[in-house]
Amino acid sequence: MIASLLLAAALLALALAPAAAQDISCKMCRGGNRKCIGDTAMQAVTDEDCAQCIKSGTSWTWPCSVEGLCWCWDSTKPRVKPAPPSTFEVAEAKPCDVFTEEMFDVIAPNAVHPYTYDGLCEVIDTLNERYDEKIFQMGTLEQQKNEWAAFIGHTTHESAQYTAAREALMCARTVERGSGTYCKPCENNNFDWTNRYCEVSMVSNGQFIEDYCDKIVTPPHGCVCGPTTEVDKHDLKGLMNPNVSYFGRGAIQLSWNMNYLKASQVLAESSDTLCTQPDLVATEPKYAWGTALWFWMFSKPSDGKETTCHIRALEGNFGGTLDIINGGLECPADPEGYHAEAIVTRMRYYCIAASVIGVKRLLDLDGCDGLSKAFEDCVMDGWCPECQDWLMDAEPEETKPPSPAAPTSPPVPFRSWADDSWMNTLKRRDSSAMRVATGVCGIATALAAIYFSMR
pTM higher than 0.70 for the full model? Predict the structure, then answer.
């Protein structure tokens, strides 16, 4: 009798739990279309190994003892492990009712295809229909705005205000031939940044490149990859086929063969799509935006903590989102290197997004070593005018939630980046540290430097 009451209480608690707190463990994975299966991205485990985890008394035995290795899959949905859940409830306001097309046009007046507002909203709706954890639709309205501002700030920086779909040094200019589209990969010292032209190809005269290819990581953990060479020594001399290389593309510059496979499983429901056609990320809005959303929702920090950019933004931590995206190079940034300049553009874009979207204050910066000081220096030295009136509100105390009070004075009016002549002195060399656990060992990978000029 007591056991029955306890079971009933447990089931009632589960039913009343917030939708965001989705339990994907195998403890209650019984009946209907639910199956306990293995996450092969973590370890070499089979579904048969995990089947035992629905039984009582198995929590101390492998693989049930490894958190997240076995998970409960609803077989009516794509076989993709849900994003790590936050502790917040689903919000009423739809994402693209919070961040409107008018806001997008103000922030990115020069955006080019594939960075369309409609494309962004469509892929958000698709993913939110599929998963219990909603992108830009968790928590309060203020949390929704804050997450949007953080995401837009990062991706506007990474994509050169939504004008760069491909990494410049790998494919600054596409070359169109009757047989297709080709790229001319270049080293920095051979690249004409003013005219965005590569003078000497990295794959000419029998040379090859293996950038963004970890040959040890193979399906089902990463796309098959190998040396990239020129297409031929005649009409296509010095040119490579972009669909055999996994260089940076899209709103967050997705890179590396293992990340293309993981993103493809979520966005295309097949690992083959982006493995065989990675350039779709540079040409199709679904993938240009979708790969950034995949990274935002699914990628964890290199220390393996169960958190994501999505969760950290909801918790009020902008610095934590940067630590996941590019912490290896910007947390802290070398004061004498490019990434000290990259923080300037990143913070300016974040402040612009925060002003246009109308957040009450910036999120905490402490999750990224050195970011608070870099932000203060940027404002005090005059490089971040859009951030001037946010300075006093940039760092809420750790023990208190973000204050609902508005800044003491309105943020400075937005000025189009097309008129910022100071940016002409900076060479864009953006980097997204795509530190995603890969392969059997679950080691973190870092995205190499991505170069493109800002005008």
Answer: yes
